[in-house]
Amino acid sequence: MTISGGSLLGIGVLVFYAMAVLNAAAKPLLRHTKVHAANHPKMKATIEKIARFLIKNHRLLGRIAAVLLAAHAGVQYFRFGASVTGAAAAALLVMQVTLGAYGAKIKSRGGWLIAHRVIALLLPAAMFIHIF
Ligand code: HEM
Ligand code: HEM
User: Fold this and answer.
1) Which of 72, 77, 119, 126 could bond to 9 as cystine, CB 3.0-4.6 Å?
2) Up-side HSE of residue 44: CA atoms within 13 Å toward CB?
3) Cα of 89 to ligand 1 centre, how many Å?
4) Count of domains forming the chain
5) Is 93 exposed, middle or buried (0-12, 13-18, 19+ CB in 10 A)?
6) CA-proximal residue: ligand 2, atom 31 (nearest)
7) Model pLDDT for residues 59-74, shown as the tens digit of each residue
8) How many C-alpha atoms does 79 have within 13 Å on its Cβ side?
9) Residue 74: domain span
10) How far is it, in rounded angstroms, from Cα 125 to Cα 7?
11) Residue pLDDT, tens place only, 7-28
12) pTM of the model
């Protein structure tokens, strides 16, 4: 099986989306390891390292997903033409990154964060429809 560069870029979008969305799991995870992994210091340290990385780099990971999306959309457009399902998923991802940048700028936890969480949940559905 050969995987085209365009597909690889699409897979890259998925991977960075996944790392960005895990931000939501990282904080509860940090709380849980304190209690439930107290007797497993090595595992606790590893989980905490990963969780802190995801929290610290959330904005960057989301932005990388958007950059890879632009490259994927460009390559696929010239190879295959427009994709309605791709455009729908892309619209959501661009909204997501814009909302995130807005929220990071105003430094509050208002309505934008609710929208940011809802779109984070809608994105896998849109991506699934696009890919399968
Ligand atoms: C969040 C947005 C997107 C994600 C996560 C994504 C992801 C992917 C992935 C993983 C594949 C590979 C599927 C495979 O090889 O079987 C793919 C294929 C494709 N994508 Fe996207 N994509 C997105 C947006 C777009 C956009 C905006 C376009 C517009 C041009 C597009 C056009 C295509 C096309 C035409 C294919 C099919 C290539 C083929 O038939 O082999 N995608 N996408
Ligand atoms: C693929 C892109 C992205 C996804 C899937 C995503 C997902 C999420 C999720 C699920 C949360 C909620 C965390 C919680 O409930 O505790 C969140 C929070 C947040 N996101 Fe994003 N996000 C993305 C991109 C971005 C970008 C590009 C920025 C900024 C430039 C950003 C800024 C924020 C901020 C400031 C918060 C609230 C504070 C925090 O929990 O860290 N996000 N994001």
Assistant:
1) 72
2) 11
3) 9
4) 1
5) buried
6) 100
7) 999 999 999 999 999 9
8) 10
9) 5-131
10) 18
11) 999 999 999 999 999 999 999 9
12) 0.94
